[in-house]
Amino acid sequence: MSEQSRRPHKPAKPYRRPQKDPVRILAFEALRAVDERDAYANLVLPPLLRKAREKGDFDTRDAALATELVYGTLRRQGTYDAVIASCVDRPLREVDPPVLDVLSLGVHQLLGTRIPTHAAVSASVELARVVLGDGRAKFVNAVLRKVAQDDLQGWIEKVAPPYDEDPEDHLAVVHSHPRWVVSALWDSLGGGRAGIEDLLAADNERPEVTLVARPGRATTEELLREDAAVPGRWSPYAVRLAEGGEPGAVEAVREGRAGVQDEGSQLVALALANAPLDGPDEKWLDGCAGPGGKAALLGALAAARGAALLASEKQPHRAGLVEKALHGNPGPYQVIAADGTRPPWRPGSFDRVLVDVPCTGLGALRRRPEARWRRRPEDLDNFAPLQRSLLRTALDSVRVGGVVGYATCSPHLAETRAVVSDVLKQRPDTELIDARPLLTGVPDLGEGPDIQLWPHVHGTDAMYLALIRRTA
Ligand SMILES: C[S@@+](CC[C@H](N)C(=O)[O-])C[C@H]1O[C@@H](n2cnc3c(N)ncnc32)[C@H](O)[C@@H]1O
């Protein structure tokens, strides 16, 4: 008898096919697309969900779970990476990206949801078996078992440096933001630990869906008849939809009489429209209009005053979106594709001008969970000349006595005050207007004369606005 045949016989485990869980597979596919193709989660997810619903194996709860898994994993990636790094024996950059995505999804289920531990681990291992193979599924199993030994708070205490040693690094790990972003937000916000912690925490909250009732086309009363609709906090045109509210189900939105628009964006358009003006108020310009949210509100406000709006956008396909947003506007308007730094209109043509310039978008991190990982400090240098140039041309485009609004959806000082002060230094023919009194009832707008909104204070994106008058 051979050595082998004398050993007690241990029956091999019968092979079991991995269980395919459509929710986790879809979440994994979305993360891969974000990672591999630099796609945006808010663009990738809807078609994937639609396809899954059409196949018939997805209901509303599945869609909600898949959405939560994708957004939650992307938002918390910084914290989860630190946890995973302490559970694997090689640098994270040496872990294959698809393996890292499965691990991050698993860590989110373990530390960021109420999914029971055994279900979170076994669902992740099954996912790994389907998308990575049995060998790498064992690695996933081993790592997640280590992660499951503590909760989120316990892990943070282990992996984040103490606040007193390095406040920015501590906050970066605890609130899952790149360190340079923590630093930039803190510079702009000022103050002590409490404020920045509140802001970073607010960036990790799911934002409410806010609608705008475009004046002359819809009313807030009409929108408030929707289930789970409540009035906006600051804008007279805003209505908020509670969790689960589906804007596509609202008739006024389907008809373009209302739209989805953050209250911060509504306030920017309103402040420009309300700025005091001597003389005619007939010609308005939106110089960076795509995709058209502010243009649609400005167009409706202009119409109520008998003014006309020119909405200009450099990218032709985005100009098409502006056309769609303005379709049905009650007053005169025109949409053109033009470079705002070399405009086709004559200087001094407009009474009011908005330039909502391209920027890093660091004020809208709630909506674009992947943006904080994709942005680099060098992006600021790329935007800087364009932002200055667009503001200079906007100042040339407005008539003497007219008003320009310079807006960004970033609170980064290099994109806000630095641009305004650099440009105005060379423009003795301009003056800043105090924008704060134009937003009646909105508290804590900063020390002025410009306005900085904040997610943790106002529940809006961190929009910035400076209003500038041409004096000569
Ligand atoms: C922050 S977005 C504007 C958002 C828009 N105001 C809204 O509320 O929907 C900036 C826009 O400026 C456009 N843009 C970039 N460079 C431009 C230029 N040189 N001239 C005009 N538009 C430009 C971008 O394509 C982008 O659509």
UniProtKB/TrEMBL annotation:
<protein>
    <submittedName>
        <fullName>rRNA cytosine-C5-methyltransferase</fullName>
    </submittedName>
</protein>
<keyword id="KW-0489">Methyltransferase</keyword>
<feature type="binding site">
    <location>
        <position position="313"/>
    </location>
    <ligand>
        <name>S-adenosyl-L-methionine</name>
    </ligand>
</feature>
<dbReference type="InterPro" id="IPR035926">
    <property type="entry name" value="NusB-like_sf"/>
</dbReference>
<feature type="binding site">
    <location>
        <position position="339"/>
    </location>
    <ligand>
        <name>S-adenosyl-L-methionine</name>
    </ligand>
</feature>
<feature type="compositionally biased region" description="Basic residues">
    <location>
        <begin position="7"/>
        <end position="17"/>
    </location>
</feature>
<keyword id="KW-0694">RNA-binding</keyword>
<keyword id="KW-0808">Transferase</keyword>
<dbReference type="Pfam" id="PF01189">
    <property type="entry name" value="Methyltr_RsmB-F"/>
</dbReference>
<keyword id="KW-0949">S-adenosyl-L-methionine</keyword>
<dbReference type="InterPro" id="IPR018314">
    <property type="entry name" value="RsmB/NOL1/NOP2-like_CS"/>
</dbReference>
<dbReference type="InterPro" id="IPR006027">
    <property type="entry name" value="NusB_RsmB_TIM44"/>
</dbReference>
<dbReference type="InterPro" id="IPR001678">
    <property type="entry name" value="MeTrfase_RsmB-F_NOP2_dom"/>
</dbReference>
<dbReference type="InterPro" id="IPR029063">
    <property type="entry name" value="SAM-dependent_MTases_sf"/>
</dbReference>
<comment type="similarity">
    <text>Belongs to the class I-like SAM-binding methyltransferase superfamily. RsmB/NOP family.</text>
</comment>
<dbReference type="InterPro" id="IPR023267">
    <property type="entry name" value="RCMT"/>
</dbReference>
<feature type="binding site">
    <location>
        <position position="356"/>
    </location>
    <ligand>
        <name>S-adenosyl-L-methionine</name>
    </ligand>
</feature>
<feature type="active site" description="Nucleophile">
    <location>
        <position position="409"/>
    </location>
</feature>
<feature type="domain" description="SAM-dependent MTase RsmB/NOP-type">
    <location>
        <begin position="185"/>
        <end position="471"/>
    </location>
</feature>
<feature type="region of interest" description="Disordered">
    <location>
        <begin position="1"/>
        <end position="20"/>
    </location>
</feature>
<dbReference type="InterPro" id="IPR049560">
    <property type="entry name" value="MeTrfase_RsmB-F_NOP2_cat"/>
</dbReference>
<feature type="binding site">
    <location>
        <begin position="288"/>
        <end position="294"/>
    </location>
    <ligand>
        <name>S-adenosyl-L-methionine</name>
    </ligand>
</feature>
<dbReference type="Pfam" id="PF01029">
    <property type="entry name" value="NusB"/>
</dbReference>
